[in-house]
């Protein structure tokens, strides 16, 4: 709730009290909203870290104070990976866009690894001679 301070009589004690009360309420609301936004960002960051452990994922501000979700691969990129389109840094404006970009980057990495014949990890029950 926001008060229209143009109609408060700041020349009276009552008017000043009303103005202070409205300001305090606005500050409480803004603080609560900021806390919710930070909690949401922390949760999104935790999900991204769990989903894409091969990437260092952070939130960074640029010189204009704009917030960016960034991801940098933890592995060195080979010429084949860069040629395939794997990026050295992924910048997105929100967590959902970063998740989408990292899903694509993971697909590109898997394409290169599958062509190169890298060893694959198999499920434990398959190694024991049973189908998964």
Task: Describe the protein's architecture and organization.
The chain is α+β, with helices and mostly antiparallel strands. The chain is about 55% helix and about 15% strand. The chain contains four helices and three strands, in the order αββαβαα. The chain has helices spanning about 15-50, 80-85, 95-115, 125; strands at about 55-60, 65-75, 90. Strands 1-2-3 form a three-stranded antiparallel β-sheet, covered by helices on one side. The chain is rod-shaped and about 80 Å long. It starts with 12 loop residues before the first helix and ends in a 5-residue tail after the last helix. Mean pLDDT is about 80; it is low at about 120-130.
Jot down its keywords.
rod-shaped, disordered C terminus, 132 residues, alpha+beta, 13% strand
Give a topology summary:
Blueprint: H1 13-51, E1 55-61, E2 67-73, H2 79-84, E3 90-92, H3 95-116, H4 124-127
Antiparallel strand pairs: 1-2, 2-3
Summarize the structure.
The protein is α+β, with helices and mostly antiparallel strands and 132 residues long. The protein has helices spanning 13-51, 79-84, 95-116, 124-127, and strands at residues 55-61, 67-73, 90-92.
